[in-house]
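Troubleshooting: if your tokenizer reports a length mismatch, compare your output against this known-good record of 274 residues.
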Amino acid sequence: MPFDLTAPVVANTPLGRDYNVVALAAPEIARQALPGQFVMVKTAPGVDPLLRRPFSVFEILRDEAGRPMGISLLNKAIGAGTRLLFHLRPGDRIGCLGPLGRPFEPVDPPAEAWMIAGGVGLAPFAALADSLREHGTRARLFYGGRTSADLIRLELFERGGIETSLATEDGSRGTRGFVTLALERALDSTPHERDVALYACGPTPMMQAVAQLAGRHRRACHVSVEPVMGCGLGGCYSCVVPMRRNGRSHYVRSCLEGPVFDAASIVWEELGTH
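Known-good structure output:
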């Protein structure tokens, strides 16, 4: 069962003009959270904004003894709620409900794990990277953004020995173009006998492209979708995702059956049009 608590802010780390990471003291959630799960956050008291907003659990924060003591959230200030989150100060308290949703399942060696992130789609992968290290699984991060300023918190992955392949649309860092170009080149040069599992999160067109590449190269692929959520508990049906099952298309609630899905089961042409 998820916990519904008022979590104190212990730190707010700015990452340039638009991004920040908020650390919350929430040991109950931290002890239960798995990579790919999310929390529903009330960014301000009162009714404005009225609804909570979903955030992937970015990091599981631990004390000096290694005990889970909190979580962090990766945020980009693009709307009313995210701007409030951007300006939080240590000591502020916000409502936090979680952990929620279906998590990623880390693969074990000798399989490799390739994580593909676009923008703030990086959010579920810090926790997944930690889990992969615990499993002893070799991991690689493909990370793309519009500019170099959109590539943030790389040190979390690099200091853990994770290989990174970067891409920017303006060519300011890494491969010029979409991150899927770097992924395609890597897949093309990787022998099929190497067992590689793909994990993706980011804009829908990016995840659809990753799903297509995974199908072409016969690789397992799981994606963390990011639809609008009103409640996070399955009551409002605002987060439905079109799925293909037994040859037929139907809708499921991503807050309950996701947000992590087998990429091959999603009807990508209908996602975002319902």
